[in-house]
Amino acid sequence: MTTTAATVRSTDRSGIRSRFAREANATFAIAWREVLRAIKSPSSIAFTVIFPVIFMGVLGGSISQNLGSALPYAYLPFMLIGMVANTLYQGTIVGVTNLVEERENDFTAELFVAPISRYAVLLGKIVGSGIASLISLVGIVAMIFVMQIPMSFGDLLRVIALAPILALAGGSLGVFFIGFVQDPKTAGAGVALLVFPQIFLSGALIPTAGSTGILGVLAHLMPMTYSIDLARNIFYAGKPEAAFTVLNSPWLDLAVTVGFFLVFTVVGTYMFVRADRNR
Amino acid sequence: MDPTIQVEHLVKRYKKAATPAVDDIGFEVGAGELFAFLGPNGAGKTTTISILTTTLAKTSGIVRIDGHDLDRDPTAVRRRIGIIFQNPSVDLHLSGEENIRLHVALYGLYAYRPFYRAMPADYRNRIEELAEVVGLRDDVFRPLKTFSGGMKRKLEIIRSLMHRPGVLFLDEPTSGLDPVSRHSLWQYLRRVRAADGTTIFLTTHYLEEAEEADRVCVIDHGRIATIGTPDELKADLLERSIVLDAVDRPALIAELRSFGASPSIDDGGLIRVPYSGATAQSLVARVTTPLTVLRVHDPSLEEAYVALLRLDEEPETRGLQGSAA
């Protein structure tokens, strides 16, 4: 015990004075925590890298060999862009829904008793999970060489530059989900229901331009459809394949993505906080 | 001067619960006061502390912390409080220091840096100082997965003190701590109180910790059973007594009865003489029988607490309830 009353008084306790700066600082800290957690979990890294590789190599490779020749464009770049967008989007969903587990093991008490807005907490989770999901792109980029996918790095970088939008879009869907699902077991099963239909219905792996009937309706209802189409709009901009690969105008994709983001974030945050406090 | 914590008609009824967990309680805690909030398991302590720290919504009632209404300005309330949770609220994937660094960023004390060495010297000094106080030292940099329960508790203590809160809520802060660490913590808390005038709201099952509280409030079945200083509680609920014995025990008992005392044989086979009003010395001074044993028994808070809860279980003693300040 070496502390004295003098030293207790001497330190400035006010810290960061601007409210905006405090919120931004907290958001950054929460985001970095997500990155640290990802880095410190080798098994999780291995899984997130291997998972898209299996999808691309096995499912994508099989579709390419058996059905790719019937398409008026190269299937592998189409699939690759879909998988990049899907990985960032879904990786953020999974990271954000982890809050349900953290509530169960009491960690959210530390976050929600802090003098910051709930939006800062959830934005930090979204940003951090989005950055952490970039790790899984390592496997996807490696598959460009393994599967000899014809594409320039400039094109790929343009799509990766969309990462913030994709992460925010996916994260907001995660927030919406945890606003209504509080039980960790239900959340685990629910995330699978949220992730897998979107992989197949949103056009990440399988083209949906010809989908009609119920499948066509579902494809249009999937929030990820618009994020993936936005990524393809960027990748195929100015290329003749755009006529076959892109569903909507980029502005429509962006508007729908922003709309989903706003509704999901506001409603999800309200419901999540309400469920947490109104027991 | 306004009290630091004001609670009026607080009620919390959980969803689907038949009875309220907290049932119309009220109390005030003054600035710099050490307020012990005691009660058996399930009495409503953690529910109350969760409401006061904004992590649980109340059903009805008014709560103000440092003049800020809990409903109208929860952020201002959160800025003024520190908490040690009953269940450790820590991230096991991070190191101890990384947990603390996250905490100080959440409270806006320091700009967050991804690496410890990049944090300001003031922060690093404080970590080292507090790690020394609770006996964690270099362990604070180890992954939390390797921490024992007691070490996690120590980490929470460091974390709660980092932002020097005006009001510190301690929900069983020393459970799982070894006696040396417990002693160090209380020494430090006394120093913090003296230096910063920190108000402390304590729940604990170690009643010797509550002995030094300015006031003690006992809650049972969601209602306040009693509130007062430890001495008031003891005086209200228990009699002070002296314990005597003599070779000529019948003579001693007869002598005690001759001046109106009521001696009885206690569990240890010795003569116990309760006294109230008079001092132990004034009683002993009248005894002429040679004594072989002489002890003054000053009842502990724990004895008073146990006596109170036993009384509370008896319907005819319900009149004791509701004496909140």
Task: Write a compact overview of the structure shown.
The complex is a heterodimer of chains A (279) and B (325). Chain A is mostly helical and 279 residues long. Chain A has 14 helices and no strands.
Word description of this protein:
The complex is a heterodimer of chains A (279) and B (325). By secondary structure, chain A is an all-alpha fold. Chain A is 76% helix and 0% strand. In chain B, a hairpin with a 5-residue loop joins strand 12 (264-265) and strand 13. In chain B, 43% of the residues are buried. In chain B, the strands form three sheets. Chain B has a six-stranded mixed β-sheet with strand order 6-7-8-3-9-10, sandwiched between helices. A four-stranded antiparallel β-sheet of chain B has the order 2-1-4-5, with helices on one face. Chain B is an alpha/beta fold and 325 residues long. Chain B has helices at 45-52, 74-80, 96-106, 121-134, 149-162, 179-196, 207-210, 230-237, 249-258, 280-284, 301-313; strands at residues 5-12, 22-29, 34-38, 60-65, 68-69, 81-84, 167-171, 199-203, 215-220, 223-228, 240-245, 264-265, 271-275, 293-297. Chain B has eleven helices and 14 strands. Chain B starts with a strand and ends in a 12-residue tail after the last helix. At the A-B interface, helix 1, helix 2 and helix 5 of A face helix 2, helix 3, helix 4 and helix 6 of B.
**What is the CA-CA span between the terminal residues of chain A?**
41 Å
Number of strands of chain A: 0
Q: Would you tell me the structural class of the helices and strands of chain B?
A: alpha/beta
Shape of chain B: elongated
Give the secondary structure arrangement, pairings included.
The complex is a heterodimer of chains A (279) and B (325).
Chain A: H1 5-10, H2 19-39, H3 42-67, H4 75-104, H5 107-112, H6 118-133, H7 137-146, H8 153-160, H9 163-180, H10 184-201, H11 213-221, H12 223-235, H13 242-245, H14 250-277
Helix pairs in contact in A: 2-6, 3-4, 3-7, 4-6, 4-9, 4-10, 4-12, 6-9, 8-12, 9-12, 9-14, 12-14
Chain B: E1 5-12, E2 22-29, E3 34-38, H1 45-52, E4 60-65, E5 68-69, H2 74-80, E6 81-84, H3 96-106, H4 121-134, H5 149-162, E7 167-171, H6 179-196, E8 199-203, H7 207-210, E9 215-220, E10 223-228, H8 230-237, E11 240-245, H9 249-258, E12 264-265, E13 271-275, H10 280-284, E14 293-297, H11 301-313
Parallel strand pairs in B: 3-8, 3-9, 6-7, 7-8
Antiparallel strand pairs in B: 1-2, 1-4, 4-5, 9-10, 11-13, 11-14, 12-13
